[in-house]
């Protein structure tokens, strides 16, 4: 695995938003937390997207789906204090917990993450 992808990154790719091309390059060998995958599916359903087969399509291009572990749950909770003033949600912190757990950089469309003082490399796709 090379990069953790946030839900915002996958959504940018799916909806041809700015930065989606950099997400396309990160899919093969990238990974996503199942928490963030749930967010991608939910937001896609809100837009009326037929999500049947979507997970398999991502797997076919090399994206790995990582289960949200109890250790990552604890890390996400511990990140609350240092990230709350930046408005990070629990799924945001789940993504960061996966990145910390796997010692990988994270790719996101959320620019506020760049201001976090964490030992996690944050790459903005925009």
Automatic annotation (TrEMBL):
<dbReference type="Pfam" id="PF01850">
    <property type="entry name" value="PIN"/>
</dbReference>
<dbReference type="InterPro" id="IPR029060">
    <property type="entry name" value="PIN-like_dom_sf"/>
</dbReference>
<protein>
    <submittedName>
        <fullName>Twitching motility protein PilT</fullName>
    </submittedName>
</protein>
<dbReference type="InterPro" id="IPR002716">
    <property type="entry name" value="PIN_dom"/>
</dbReference>
<feature type="domain" description="PIN">
    <location>
        <begin position="4"/>
        <end position="117"/>
    </location>
</feature>
């Amino acid at each position: 695995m090379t990069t953790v992808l946030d839900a915002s990154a996958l959504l940018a790719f799916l909806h041809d938003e700015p930065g989606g091309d950099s997400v396309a390059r990160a899919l093969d060998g990238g990974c996503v937390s199942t928490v963030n995958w749930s967010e991608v599916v939910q937001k896609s359903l809100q837009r009326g997207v037929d999500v049947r087969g979507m997970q398999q399509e991502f797997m076919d291009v090399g994206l790995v789906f990582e289960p949200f572990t109890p250790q990552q749950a604890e890390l996400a909770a511990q990140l609350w204090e240092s990230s709350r003033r930046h408005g990070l949600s629990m799924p945001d912190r789940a993504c960061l917990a996966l990145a910390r757990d796997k010692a990988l950089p994270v790719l996101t469309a959320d620019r506020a993450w760049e201001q976090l003082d964490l030992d996690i490399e944050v790459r903005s796709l925009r």
